[in-house]
Design goal:
Elements lengths: L14 E4 L51 H20 L19 E8 L2 E11 L2 E10 L7 E7 L8 H11 L4 E5 L16 H9 L4 H17 L4 E11 L1 H12 L5 E5 L40 H5 L12 H7 L4 E6 L16 H13 L6 E6 L11 H12 L3
Parallel strand pairs: 5-6, 5-7, 7-8, 8-9, 9-10
Antiparallel strand pairs: 1-10, 2-3, 3-4, 4-6
Length: 408
Amino acid sequence: MKRTFGLAACGLTLVLIFNAVNFADTPTSPRTSLKYHQPPKNAVARMQRQADFDLPSVLVHDDGTLVKTADDWHNKRRVELVQHWTRILGKLQPTTADQRWFGDINNARVGKTTELEGYTRIELELPIEKDFQQPHLLLLPKGQGKGPFPAVIAWTSTSPDYRKPEEWWGSWLARRGFVVLTGWSFIRHYRGGINYSHDVNEAVYERFGHWLPMAKMVHDVQREVEFLRGRAEVDAENIGFIGFSLSAKAALYVAAFAPEIKATVAVDPHIAIYGATNWHDPWYLDSKHKFPSIHTADYPDPELRGTVWSLLDTNPERPGFERNHHELLALAAPRSLMVIGCSMDKEFSGHSDDLGSWAYINRAVEVYKLLGIPERLRFVTSTEGHCAVSPSFDAEWQGFFTRWLKKR
């Protein structure tokens, strides 16, 4: 079934902004919660009580011992988590055999160039794969010195196309000394014109095997980084990513698994895997697809053996997925990450971060605090509903990129 999500800018309303580690609330406040998100209305029986249980701490090794030092996190626990998520995603990078599908990303097709106030817009098609040209806009600062400039990759959501991020974020950034590359996820526009409503996931599996769409998105961003690093205008060590809705979901995975990205902004991704949004759909985690590479023959539910679901739900006797997105937020450390939640006055909000998102942030905070860098994880809360930009929180992502990408 075709679904579309993603709206334009919101009007000005009151916004509450917190550094996720600097709040002083009562123990019962949602802002101090460690509980799973409320499950969806059609939740399977064993998940219906998940909101009564705490998310597992990220700072516990697989053997049950506690992570006590930064070295312990980097050298052991982080390695364990990457291994778990690699099994889920299939792979984080193309295999040697896969490389035949990838050529020189710098062999771009250059289209129309337009001179605008403060920047130059160049229309491009980049060869993400040898037989797949993806359209982009490249925005270059004008009249702001020779550079090199920090850069931001900006993806659109489900509804508009790759040009919309110029309006949302790109023009502001380009006029203030950032190179911007706008784009969109391959699940919107892939080989042969297929997309999320026409088995785009199957096209990936046919060519690459078990490589979940979420992981393919990360690699596409890494290809875009490779292109940007090939341009003299770009400061190769200061590249960021921003996305809304669909691409905010991608942003969580980019933050965790693309170390080339120094600072990431996810605008309203709906963090929880099993809440009010569609993480389980084939074009995201495809959680009920059977993969020969997933060996869970002893999983208690025969229908879910060999699936991503069986890897996410490592303890079926306990409600809630043990592998969840608080782990991805933690894996982003020590890089900088901002999440903007847009329905933070609601207990349950479809496709938008709500009060149930706090627990996932709070678990990730534990890692950032252990590493002594709590300021690098920001949770900005709004009450406006699902939207990409707003006068009430625009200053937050603007200041975030300025702080973490611009040289001082």
